[in-house]
Design goal:
TIM Barrel; globular; Aldolase_TIM; carbohydrate metabolism; 2-dehydro-3-deoxy-6-phosphogalactonate aldolase activity; lyase
Length: 202
């Protein structure tokens, strides 16, 4: 099954990129985000893309400029995730043929993102909005809008957010921290996938 889980690897180094990517694939996670405030993020992303091929959607997070989008397109990234809703970044992302997931919090930002062409919206910080908040906003969003809860949301929250109609999740520290081994990442990724499957396959 295709799981709507984006593994957020904030702080990952290029020397870890391939091992962690392989561990995530084995666990069943097929969307990977490297925030651009990580060490040498473009190097890590390029290595991940070369290793994963078409098995995984690899992209960047914390993308703030059109120039960063252009660089991501050059190295084979497929996804752009941002903490904010910047129409210029969204349009540049779509023009380059990449998936666009801008960060939003209010209905105004949600609609601005969708009008600019976003493929889905990243509810951030999700823990502050709450599942109830998403449920209220979804009542006015176009049917089929893809929503991802990111920030302060983990496996224990999956059922509540699923009930609110969320599409998926961006998972950071519950999957990866910079002091973890590949085995640590593999174990955590497996736990996240197991929790996701228990809720979304029920």
């Amino acid at each position: 099954m295709t799981r709507e889980i984006i593994a957020i690897l904030r702080g990952i180094r290029p020397d870890e990129a391939e091992g962690v990517t392989a561990a995530l694939i084995r666990a069943g996670i097929t969307r990977i985000e490297v925030p651009l405030n990580s060490p040498e993020p473009f190097v890590s992303i390029k290595r991940m893309c070369l290793l994963a091929g078409d098995r995984v959607i690899v992209g960047a997070g914390t993308v703030l400029t059109v120039e960063e989008v252009d660089e991501l397109a050059k190295i084979g990234a497929q996804m752009v995730v941002s903490p904010d809703c910047n129409p210029e970044v969204i349009r540049a992302t779509k023009a380059a043929g990449l998936l666009s997931y801008p960060g939003v919090f209010t209905p105004t930002e949600c609609f601005a993102a969708l009008r600019a062409g976003a493929d889905g919206i990243k509810i951030f910080p999700a823990s502050q909005l709450s599942a109830a908040g998403l449920s209220a906003i979804r009542a006015v969003l176009p049917q089929g809008t893809r929503t991802y809860a990111v920030g302060g949301v983990g496996p224990n929250d999956f059922a509540e957010w699923h009930k609110a109609g969320v599409t998926g999740f961006g998972i950071g520290a519950a999957v990866y921290k910079s002091d973890m081994t590949v085995d640590d990442v593999a174990a955590r990724a497996h736990a996240v996938v197991t929790a996701y499957d228990a809720v979304f396959s029920a």
